[in-house]
Amino acid sequence: MMQSSLISSLFRKEVQALSAYKVADAKGLIKLDAMENPYSWPEELKNQWVEELKDCELNRYPDPEARLLADTLRIHDAIPECCDILLGNGSDEIIQMLLMALTPGAAVLSTTPSFVMYRQISLSLGLYFHGIALQDDFGLDVPAMLAAIAQHQPAVIFLAYPNNPTGNLFEAEAVHRIIKASSGLVIIDEAYAPFADASFMAQLANYDNLLVMRTLSKMGLAGLRLGYLMGHPDLIQQLNKIRLPYNINILSQVSAKFALTHPTVFDTQSQMICKHRRHVFEQLSGIPEITAYPSSANFILFRTPLDQADSIFSAIKQQGVLIKNLSAQGGLLRDCLRVTVGTETENEAFINALQNSLR
Ligand SMILES: *Cc1c(COP(=O)(O)O)cnc(C)c1O
């Protein structure tokens, strides 16, 4: 056993108080817990991809700026001319870079609930984190947000759009009010852009303090780890100093560029996921004990009867389907479970398992 005095003298108390981000073991289960795209690529596309990988020079360091990939992203995502792009090893790393660049003791603001890494990384870096509760319908509480901005003067505000784990898009007008009221940066996290028909990308030209963040993970490339941040070149220039020089490895650079130059496959898959999202939502809505919340993402949040979330979650797992139990987070998420939209067969297995667990 290591002496606990060693731990407590070495590590910041905020770090000691955290628990590591836990990922459930999905072995042998239908995996509907992590917002992954369930589809693979046509065999021919795989072969073309492998051909390109053959030419990767693994003995050389990759292009530190991943220029070919950045140029491809610019076209694929219609990123405005006025902006520069920062690439990260997943958008998680971008969140970390942003927060590492802040003044010690700076405040970070987001909503509760929202993506847990905003809080986790803020606390690990010794920053103050304030999560402002959403309204009962998961909309932004604008007066509370504006009051928190005035009180804490946050250096960074994160808004997930659509929000995770609730799946809704905030009202654009409310988001504009928050951007205007903030003297710090506002990050619109568009991780679920492939499934939503709304974006703040076009607004980048209108606000110097606005940044838009995206990822290839939810679109179908979670294994590659590629996130990207768009904003004013002066902001991106500062953040680039924090970035480790070769943070995007050559296999990710080549594979992501390859994938983005074959967008039809991913567009078709995203459309399929949106179609199945409608179907799963209808089925959930038809179960009297369940309240399903409308989603603009590739998952659906739903509420179970009082104090039954844990047992329903376990019963579903027992039947071979892994979803996400959010009930322990409390607040608005009490009694809530979240299911990722999978293939037709996976969704059916989930609905069946849920129905059985309510009997
Ligand atoms: C999944 C998710 C991310 C993380 O994406 P990675 O690029 O895989 O790190 C960021 N933000 C939100 C809101 C997410 O749901």
Query: How many individual domains?
Result: 2
Shape verdict:
globular
Gap between N and C termini, in Å? 47 Å
Give, in spatial order, the strands making up the sheet with the most strands: 2-8-7-6-5-3-4
- Could you say which structural class the secondary elements and strand pairing correspond to? alpha/beta
What is the mean predicted local confidence, pLDDT?
96
How are helices and strands ordered from N to C? HHEHHEHEHEHEHEEHEHHHEEHEEEH
Biggest beta sheet summary: 7 strands, mixed
CATH topology of the largest domain: Aspartate Aminotransferase, domain 2
Total strands: 13
| Helix content estimate | 40-55%
User: What compounds sit in this structure?
Assistant: pyridoxal-5'-phosphate
Corresponding CATH superfamily of the largest domain: Type I PLP-dependent aspartate aminotransferase-like (Major domain)
Enumerate the spans where pLDDT stays under 50 for 5 or more consecutive residues.
none
Question: Would you kindly provide a written description of the structure presented here, covering whatever features stand out?
Answer:
Helix 4 runs parallel beside helix 11 and helix 5 runs parallel beside helix 6. The strands form 3 sheets. This protein has a 7-stranded mixed beta sheet, with helices on both faces. A 4-stranded antiparallel beta sheet has the order 9-10-13-12. Strands 1-11 form a two-stranded parallel sheet. The protein is globular, with a radius of gyration of 21 Å. The protein is an alpha/beta fold. The chain starts with a helix and ends with a helix. The chain folds into 2 domains: 133 residues, Alpha-Beta Complex (Aspartate Aminotransferase, domain 1), CATH 3.90.1150.10; 203 residues, Type I PLP-dependent aspartate aminotransferase-like (Major domain) (Aspartate Aminotransferase, domain 2, 3-Layer(aba) Sandwich), CATH 3.40.640.10. The chain has 14 helices and 13 strands. The protein binds pyridoxal-5'-phosphate. Pyridoxal-5'-phosphate binds next to helix 5.
